[in-house]
Amino acid sequence: MNRKTGNGLPQSIDETLALLEGADYVADRALATVLFLSLRMQRPLFLEGEAGVGKTEIAKVLAQALDRRLIRLQCYEGLDVSSAVYEWNYAAQMVEIRMEEATGVSDRKAMERNVFSEKYLIRRPILDALSGRDGKAPVLLIDELDRTDEAFEAFLLEILSDFQVTVPELGTISAEEPPIIVITTNRTREIHDALKRRCLYHWVDYPDAARELEIVRRKVPHANQRLSDEVVRFIQRLRELDLFKSPGVAETIDWASALTELDKIALDPETISDTLGVLLKYQDDIARIDEGEGRRLLKEVKAELAEG
Questions:
Q1: 121-133 exposure pattern, b = at least 16 Cβ within 10 A, e = fewer
Q2: Residue 99 and residue 249: Cα distance in Å, rounded?
Q3: What are the Cα distances from residue 220, in Å, to 19, 256, 287?
Q4: Do 280 and 286 contact (CB within 8 A), yes or no?
Q5: Are 25 and 64 in contact (CB under 8 A)?
Q6: Which residues lie closer than 8 Å to 81 by C-beta, 6 or more apart?
Q7: Quick one: average pLDDT of 283-303?
Q8: Global pTM exceeds 0.85
Q9: Which uninterrupted H or E stretch holds 148?
Q10: Where are the beta strands (DSSP E) in 19-93?
Q11: What's the pLDDT tens digit per position in 153-209?
């Protein structure tokens, strides 16, 4: 199917990088490339990676930078069609039926056509995303798809392939212009190949030290330079440990913000111990760092910065 490319989309990889940077999202070229291709080819973008590496933020940045509406479907166990796609306003339908019966309407087929019309259709995120106007199709974020079950994955196949959904009472509803679809997963389970084949895929990894430092500079501009350097280097070393849950970029930003609120200009053992709850979310990890690993890592960080 030949579909027109929406207005305002970047025309090159460099423009895509600039688009992201303009919204303070520091991306590498590989991500900008797959994002550019996703927009040009009008294919859903499937982003996989650890929690907190910035997958969800990509959809938010796209909506902001392209001036599109962001529609977010937060996935969870037990998510079904009525919550994700559409449902009928049963209470209003019952009122309409009783009113028609009270006025003596006897044509059952006409009554059915009336109550199963757009007037009583409640559009949930997916159907809402298919209703965008030409040139202003929204960004549909299907967040943490791995929290749902395989039945819901199967239901998405029609939507991801043809940008349409079938409502039995109304027929097939197709998008005037396909929405920009971003799917994220934290890989708590494998997503079926049939769904992945309909998307362009990208693994969002933890950033290297230079890129993470640039992220901190943009997101926490008031942080002391020395503090930012130490925070990033400390967290980079934390990720090398066998922790239950390594801190993501979101935790890096939170920690830098928290330390700035405490008027810190550098890391010290006591401050690290007092603020580990901002950085780590599991008690076993906190205890391990608090019992000596934190001091060792801090010593390495200070030595590296002194040398450099």
A1: bebbbbbbbbebe
A2: 57
A3: 20, 7, 27
A4: yes
A5: no
A6: 87, 155
A7: 94
A8: yes
A9: none
A10: 45-48, 70-74, 86-88
A11: 998 998 998 999 988 888 899 998 999 999 999 989 999 999 999 999 999 999 999
